[in-house]
Amino acid sequence: MQYNWELSTWPNFTFSTKGIEYRLYEFAQETGEVNALLKSLPDDIRQETLLEMIVLEAIKTSEIEGEFLSRKDVMSSIKNNLGLNKTPDIVKDKRASGIADLMIDVRNTFSNALSEGRLWHWHKLLFTGNKHIHVGSWRKSAEAMQVISGSLGKEEIHFEAPPSHRVENEMNAFITWFNDTKPNGSSEIKDPVIRAAIAHLYFESIHPFEDGNGRIGRAIAEKAISQTLGRPVMLSLSKTIERDRSAYYHALKLAQSANEISEWLKYFVNIALLAQLDAKQMIDFTLRKIKVFDLFKDRLNDRQRKVLQKMYSYGIDGFEGGMTAKKYISITKTSKATATRDLQELESLGIVTAFGGGRSIHYQIKEF
User: Fold this and answer.
1) Closest CA relative to residue 256, chosen from 150, 161, 155
2) Torsion angle of alpha carbons 57, 63, 65, 66, nearest 10°?
3) Which single residue of 31, 60, 207, 260 could bond 239 by disulfide (Cβ 3.0 to 4.6 Å)?
4) Helix 213-229, helix 94-108: angle, nearest 10
């Protein structure tokens, strides 16, 4: 099997947008609506919503690679980075700090040209203190760089990247392409999703680092969309991808076998549109939260407010496992009888809905 980089047409990707024009139009419409919704939010709520999106992207892009990070650590790292904690929280997990710092840097520098130095900086952020790989430099090993899945003895090779001695020249060409295709560039690609799809595939096909290519490749896709839109994009590509990782890897595998990439664009445009729709739902969720606290401000006690804030802090995906009397007691330090009564009151007000039965009653935020 030949890979895309082995073909004489590399890296001159060809494609047709037939069949996805409406999806591209939908994405543009949804992006405009999300931006308008964000602007309508009070400053503190807008900041909270943006924080939630950054946390979500950081956690999900890590989960795609099999790393499961603490939400609390990631949130603390982001707030530390942004100076939102009066006293910086101590975050022991360097992986959480690294991915959080990467997410912030991608947003803060979205309009800047891409450079070797910036990519190496992102790699250093991801792997600070890691002594097992070469950090902040292109891979140098003479061994083949392969994307493999499966257990020992049953491995399946999905892709083999260009040999290390080709990486520097390939990355120079990629960086030039990326900067030439930005707004007002010499080879501008006007549609943000088309540009992001090609950028992600192009970068992943070179696979220039020993590790971290997926996370940095998805950051590059976000940068491409943001640059073309002219503002940091409000979506999480990784959340949508993580829902069906096998489809993501399958689409990549097919795309890396040829340089005609129409099918890859179909896949990626759908991912981007779903991610934008998810972002819109998140904003709606935030607005519902504001509505709940406003409508019931005189009917909630301090314990209920504290628990609802905790439940809402987990975003649209919800508090893991739902709220229970046991969790309520842990959060509020109250008695079981009071916890049960408070939760039943929240249900009667229509703020939460119960599921399960007997001693296994769980509560989740109800759509309002």
Assistant:
1) 161
2) 160
3) 60
4) 20
**Nearest in space to 354 (alpha carbons), one of 367, 368, 365, 342:** 365
| All domains of the chain in start order, with CATH | 4-284 (1.10.3290.10), 298-365 (1.10.10.10)
Contact assessment for residue 14 and residue 259, using Cβ atoms and an 8 Å cutoff: yes
Paired tokens of 287: 């607005």
| Terminal C-alpha separation, the chain | 53
- pLDDT, tens digit (0-9, with 9 covering 90-100), for 95-142: 999 999 999 999 999 999 999 999 999 999 999 878 889 899 999 999
How does residue 11 score in pLDDT terms, banded at 50, 70 and 90?
very high
- Residue type for 315, please? G
Does the structure show a pLDDT above 80 at 283? yes
Is residue 286 within 8 Å of residue 49, measured between CB atoms? Answer: yes
**Rounded to an integer, what is the distance from CA 188 to the centroid of its chain?**
25
Q: Which of helix, strand or coil describes residue 249?
A: helix
